Amino acid sequence: MFEPTPSLNYTKDNKILRFYYNCTVYPPSVPNIKCLQRGAKHSYAFVDGSVPEFDWPHRCESTVTVPVIEKAVDGLVANGSGDALREGFKLAWKTVDNECQLCETSGGFCGYSSNNSTSVDHNFFCFCSDGQHLKNCHYHIGEISRKSPPNYLAIGAVICGGLLVISIVVFFINKKKTGGGKSGFSQIPNTYEK
Q1: Rounded to 5 degrees, what are φ and ψ at 67?
Q2: Dihedral, CA atoms, 23, 25, 30, 36, nearest 10 degrees?
Q3: Phi then psi dihedrals of residue 50, to 5 deg
Q4: Got the DSSP string for 159-181?
Q5: Which Pfam families does the entry mention (predicted)?
Q6: Residue 175 belongs to what domain range?
Q7: What is the pLDDT of residues 99-121, one digit of tens each?
Q8: Measured distance CA(12)–CA(68) in Å, rounded
Q9: How many helices (H) and strands (E) does the chain have?
Q10: Domain check: are 59 and 12 in the same one?
Q11: How many structural domains is the chain composed of?
């Protein structure tokens, strides 16, 4: 079942519906879901708080709990559990901070992204008619784009390569200015006189 978060919660307009599937032993006086009957195995649906006293979890193969809109529960007996499920359920959205409120008042829809499902850190996005923004639909000036971070290794390699090329060019220019490649040892006498 859906676990509420600090920002998403069920409303008071919902009721909890419990399904017990493929029960091998069951009380004879309780009506079952006819379309789910499989031979001697019966299935049941109850609104939370009105489940008859019985050892349902140990007598049935599986249990499913789902929220449904309260008004759909009223027609559960007449219309069946399928109609109640099709009605859905309501969630209340409560913002943790005012980022979302600023986004929504500008005409956008809030969005959060997290690199880790257990992390409380999140990236906020405001989804607008003209695309994704960082704060609200009117925030354009100085907005930082959500591109991937720069590759510092590649940037460092390019800078080092550039410095190496410049050093080689400077070396050859200096060599040309100091005599065009003549060695300084050519002026040392090669004979020794006494």
Answers
A1: -85, 145
A2: 30
A3: -120, 25
A4: HHHHHHHHHHHHHHHHHHHTTTT
A5: WAK_assoc
A6: 152-179
A7: 888 898 899 988 877 665 554 55
A8: 11
A9: 6, 8
A10: yes
A11: 3
